[in-house]
# Entry
Amino acid sequence: MATKNVIADLVKGEKLNGDNYDLRGLMIKFDEYSKDPKHTMNQNFRVMSNMIGKLKDLGHALTDKQQNMTVIRSLPASWANMKQLLTHSENIKNFSHASQHVILEAET
# Structure
């Protein structure tokens, strides 16, 4: 786990183990992420899961609510009913639940 000093350096765009992990940039990318029309839902959630993992590795673990809201925001406008369901369902508690629910819906 990264220390507070490492996190502060990463926010400034410093390098960690030779890779440029810009925490601020990754947070912005995650917050603004939307599904690429060329990607399947599986690919969409793989990209999101990778970003969540990188953020966690950098010491910035996202809450379940933050992850779920990003899932909802990432869906196309045509999925309005699914967005509403994900927003109000008490059964969908984390990223894994939300992504599985959406992938199952996409397959039908």
Summary: Helices lie at 4-11, 23-31, 41-57, 64-74, 80-88, 95-107.
